[in-house]
Amino acid sequence: MKDDDIAKLFAKIAEHFKHADDAAHEMFKILVNTTLHFRDELIQKTGVPLTVGETQKALDIFMKVLKTHKMPQNLDKNVHDLIILWLEEVKTILHH
């Protein structure tokens, strides 16, 4: 996997939100930065990179979790961990 594949995925997604308000852009930026940090830590700790597929799956599930407030069972570890990180970031933002 190329280092910038996940960044390219988020750049593509950002195109769909180019008319969103500043708060949405800030949230998106935080999610991107969290993902890239998680990817780098994962490579450092395990030598195995986060894939674009895992990131896409995590994004899909994350959106569902925001709507339902329920975390699905039996997720892949990387997908689960990334969703948890995103949820923690959202919680931090909402409480500040």
Give keywords.
74% helix, single chain, mainly alpha, 96 residues
Describe the protein.
The protein is mostly helical and 96 residues long. It has one domain (5-94). It has helices spanning 5-15, 22-46, 52-68, 77-94. The longest helix has 25 residues, at 22-46. It is globular and about 35 Å long. The mean pLDDT is 86.
Number of domains: 1
Number of beta-strand segments: 0
Please mark out the parts with pLDDT under 50 across 5 or more consecutive residues, or reply none: none
Taking Cα atoms only, what radius of gyration do you get, to the nearest Å? 13 Å
Shape: globular
- Number of contiguous helices: 4
* Average pLDDT taken over every residue: 86
Strand content: under 5%
* Order of helical and strand elements: HHHH
Instruction: Please state the structural category.
Output: mainly alpha
Question: What profile does the largest beta sheet have?
Answer: none
What percent of residues adopt helix (DSSP H or I)? Answer: over 70%
Distance between the termini: 36 Å
Oligomer: single chain
